[in-house]
Amino acid sequence: MGSTASLPKFRDETYRDDFSFRNSEQSVLRAPFPFDKDSYMYAVNMELHQRTGQLNSAFNEPFDVDEHYLAEMRDRALVLDEDPLRYQSLPHMEMAGWDTLELLMTHKSQSYPESFSLTRNGHDWHWINRPMGIDQHFRFGDATTLPYSPLEYITRQAQGDYVVLDERQGNLWMDAGMVTTQADWSLDFDIGMNFYEWHAPVPLAHEKGIFDRALKYLLAVQQSNPARRLNWTMTVNPRLDTSPENFHKWGPENTHVTPENVADKLFLRIELQSFWRLPRSNALLFPIRCYFLSMRDISTVPKWGARMHRVLKTLPPELASYKGLDNFRQTAVDWLSQHDDGQPTTPGAQPD
Amino acid sequence: MSINAGIDVIVSDVVEVNSLIKRFHFKRADGQQLPAFSGGAHVVIEMEDGEQRRRTPYSLMSSPFDTTDYQVSIRRDDEGRGGSLYMHREVTTGMAMKISYPANLFPLDLRARRHLLIAGGIGITPFLAQTDQLNRLSADLELHYGVRSPELGAYLPELNASLGHRLHTYYSDEKQFIDYDELLTRQPVGTHLYVCGPSPMIDATLNSARSLGWPEAHIHFEHFAKSPPGEPFVIELANSGLSVEVGREQSMLEAIEAAGVDAPYLCRGGACGQCETKVLEYDGELLHEDHWLEDDEKARGQKIMPCVSRFRGKRLVLER
Description:
The structure holds 2 protein chains of 2 kinds. By secondary structure, chain A is an alpha+beta fold. Chain A has one domain (25-339). Chain A has 13 helices and 10 strands. In chain A, the strands form 2 sheets. In chain A, strands 1-8-9-10-6-7-2 form a 7-stranded antiparallel sheet. In chain A, strands 3-4-5 form a 3-stranded antiparallel sheet, with helices on one face. Chain A starts with 24 loop residues before the first helix and ends in a 16-residue tail after the last helix. Helices cover 19% and strands 34% of the residues of chain B. Chain B has 7 helices and 17 strands. In chain B, the strands form 3 sheets. In chain B, strands 1, 2, 3, 4, 5, 6 and 7 form a 7-stranded antiparallel sheet that branches. In chain B, β3 and β4 form a beta hairpin. The radius of gyration of chain B is 20 Å and the shape is globular. Classes of the chains: A alpha+beta, B alpha/beta. Chains A and B meet through β6 of A and β7 of B.
């Protein structure tokens, strides 16, 4: 990691109302497609968060910035205007907020020096975010020198949700976060819960011992070895804010999928989750970055079209229900079947 | 493997603190800043001691906010396997060494209304970093420091300057001892207790806290076991298909690493659980020295912590 990537032109688009979000062809090909085989079941699918061989991929930089950056930040600001509780931080988490700010500023300025710059002079820091037109002098550790708390400040400038987990008693506690692009869960509901409490609703995985192993892995994440995993669900319309708080807005749309509109209205929602040990607070930062691919986007990559068809068709019913797919799964399977030639697919998730 | 990735450092200073303790300073070899860390964190120092590569954990004692150098204090242990002797005899200013990234298995609970710190001897080192961190947060703290004599009490002037009346010292040569029951009884609700020192001190503190009904979540201790020297023995590594001899002053984990087999670890002191290894077969006695496995797990003989434990007998086969 740590190359000097240039950013693409940012799209002027929306994640609500007229839903003008679209992917460029490049944006489809660089997405972190989550299926490495033709069926899906939970696994502790964690790996080190580092580059893969692919030239242009969402894994190129530690914190990926893509063509949707400005639109996503505008959408976050709108969500926060309506509901400030999407950002919360318990009192003992301020140090973790500064750690997060440092981590994001350092990596963004190293990954994309044309767009972001960080200059440090002792505790006097100077941050420039050119795409968003921000030029900020502040004192590291002194929250009165920023317009928001450190965690809120930097996560208003970074794609994806950010959950900050305190480590105590051999467990992780969800004690701070910025959550506006979530797949039907609520920071306001989960705040203060531990790892087992907030995962309680997930079916099947407890019985398989998945959470015991996942927690053990996460507690071993240190500064030297950030980790990642992919998760997924499906969303009708490219709506980032599918929160329980706003269920009345998006819930009814689950019944709006038809054979005629499924290709462009139904999206695979990919979560690139990564895990970072924070230095001064010893907390764990858990960024959850959302990527949307429409069924049509997926069908442009033959291997992905076939695989998506097979995964959806064979998904265990408990999982399909938990992910909220029951209203449109069959419609999607029917549409995708025309993109499945029935031939074996090559190993791995990357396009052929 | 990158979980054990290290940092190349130069020994920038070696200071004799007293007749038993030396302090070692490390700077990054490439001139960059070291990673920040949290009070209570340790690093694992790699030592190329002749034929043998040792990896030994030491608490960071310098300010977690000072990333120009790291400092550790090491007490010479003439009975040990030789790590501290190597550091005391061989390591000099200017030497190139390798250390791990900092990891913290003894962190502060920042929700505490009050932090009660109890140190014995060289167990003072994590508290030097923690008191620096707590002072910056203007947190309520008290440090109780038991040591043999004022001469052997490392960093007393520094602690006096930074803590003043919040520092309480006990010199065993002068028959001064901590009255745990009295000390723990008068703490207000919301106090967190931290103890680091020799095993009898940790046991006495924990016994007192538990009998007084302290909540388990408010009790924190750093219990680094030492891997004692012992008779050599042979282990068979089933997954790797290797047979490895563990030397008198070598740990099983070091012998496994020396054979070129990558094994996970974090604390190397029998406390964190990362190196837990399945015992597939054995004919003899497993000598458990760790604080990780429960007593019944030790008795069942299906798991072992190769960072500190040893074996005596005919045959030991590990899943590694």
